[in-house]
Amino acid sequence: MARSRTAPVWLHGAPIGAITSTPRRGTTLRFTYDADVLDRYPLNVPLLSCSMPTGARTMNARAFFAGLLPEGDHRRALASRALVLDTDVFALLLAYGQDVAGAVVVGDAVADRPRATADPYSASALDDEVAALADKARPLAVHDDSELSIAGLQDKMLLVALEDGGWARPVHGYPSTHILKVDDRAHRGLVVAEHTCLQIASAAQLPAAKSQLAAFGELDALIVTRFDREVGDAALPRRIHQEDSCQALGIDLGPSAGRAKYERHGGPRLREVADLLDAWGDRESRYELLDQVVFTVLIGNGDAHGKNVSFLHRAADEIALAPLYDTVPTALWPALRTWAAMSVGGAIELPQIDLADIIREATTWGLSESFARARAVATTERVRQACLTVDRPDAPIAEATAQLVSSNCEKLLTAAPD
Questions:
Q1: Which is it for strands 156-161 and 167-171: parallel, antiparallel or unpaired?
Q2: How far, in Å, CA of 295 to CA of 64, rounded?
Q3: Separation between Cα atoms, residue 194 and residue 181, nearest integer Å
Q4: How many Cβ atoms are within 10 Å of 20's Cβ, its own excluded?
Q5: Residue 416 above 70 pLDDT?
Q6: Is residue 393 scored above 90 in pLDDT?
Q7: Cα first-last separation, the chain
Q8: Looking at 218-271, which runs of residues are DSSP E strands?
Q9: What's CA 310's distance to the chain center, in Å?
Q10: At what angle do helices 72-82 and 89-96 cross, to 10 degrees?
Q11: pLDDT over 80 at 257, yes or no
């Protein structure tokens, strides 16, 4: 009989429970809250995840914890380095679960491990690291002393910002502060386009991740400030808890080889995201979701799937919509998908989605038609103005991005229903 394995789970530096796994075909992963946690928090609140509210029962935890790991080749590379199966979520989290999305730590707490540190890069060393990342020679820039993980498929790595403006490598679970994404060689300019969209969003007063462009040798990269980290006077950057909508809805991507992050393959629907915000968010949460839907349509982003819509956990019983991130205008690359990762009012072809579809979608969340129309039009107007005034990189793809968004704004407003 296979032997069960157990590891502690920490949240905000305090133990909250344990995961247990029994290795077998279709490896299970269960989570149980500690008894003292149930004494300190009300029952049925999303302390760790909306899919695992507080309670005495043992819960299926695979969707949430597997969601902390990368997908595809990146997961296989981490598994090979750790000498474990890429389906063994428990073993992967023991090896790499010290610095993951949100405020979770799996295994020994970082606070109890003085080896956690930030190892500064020289300029040449960082150039070499990014080159190895782009060449897929070192996926996620993981070394033997790295105990980190980041979800997704894109070539990226974690960094720590230093006070002198330099960058460091997080070692033994030191909290990273930034994510570096190297440009896609098959779709040149992708990082510039994403950065441009983030700048437009910010200029339009939409909450969005902060970003900057950088060059490393001949490679372009986007460096994004993590919205789930806060740098202050403490010895370590503070972790802020968050989860994506697949985790929050208990959707395990494993059986579908990652496709279940898309609605057409069983992934989250906007109505389900809105329902979670209605249950655990404040009044503004669904309004902000409407803003994000409008912006996704305006930039032609067919990759706004369940892993790219996230929640911040403000308290044990309160969530909020996370800022916009991964804002890629996929419409600029004909080879990329043209359908929406989440349907909008029943419509799935991004170029055909109009204001009526957006309003129809919002009414299924409980918003009135008049409010949804006014909010969507106001957001579109701000985005249109932002396209005219925002500072953007001196690159053809940046201008093409702004023109695409501006054109979509005009189209949406022209076709607005009375």
A1: antiparallel
A2: 27
A3: 10
A4: 17
A5: no
A6: no
A7: 67
A8: 219-225, 229-230, 238-239, 242-244
A9: 6
A10: 70
A11: no
Alpha carbon distances (Å) from 104 to 11, 16, 93, 149, 239:
5, 10, 11, 11, 8
Summarised one tens digit per residue, pLDDT across range 353-378 is 999 999 999 999 999 999 999 999 99
pTM greater than the 0.85 cutoff = yes
- Sign of dihedral through CA atoms 225, 328, 322, 32? negative
Q: pLDDT of 101-156, one tens digit each?
A: 999 999 987 666 667 899 999 999 999 999 999 988 899 999 999 999 998 778 89
Q: What is the CA radius of gyration of the chain?
A: 21
Q: How many residues does the chain have?
A: 418
Amino acid in the structure at residue 384:
R
CA-to-CA dists, residue 243 to 51, 179, 313, 322, 392, angstroms? 10, 16, 8, 9, 30
Strand runs labelled E in 53-195: 59-60, 104-106, 117-120, 156-161, 167-171, 178-182
Q: With cut-offs at 50, 70 and 90, classify the pLDDT of residue 311.
A: very high
127 Cβ neighbours under 8 A, 6+ residues apart: 216, 217
Average per-residue pLDDT in the chain?
92
Extract the runs of DSSP E, i.e. beta strands, from 217-355.
Answer: 219-225, 229-230, 238-239, 242-244, 310-315, 318-321, 339-344, 347-349
pLDDT band at 64 (very low <50, low <70, confident <90, very high): very high
Vertex 59, ends 56 and 65: CA angle to 5°?
125
> What is the pLDDT, as a whole number, of residue 335?
79
User: Which domains does the chain possess?
Assistant: 5-109 (no CATH), 111-225 (3.30.200), 245-414 (1.10.1070)
**Listed residue (11, 3, 1) closest to 90, CA to CA:** 3
> Is the alpha carbon torsion for 180, 184, 188, 194 positive or negative?
negative
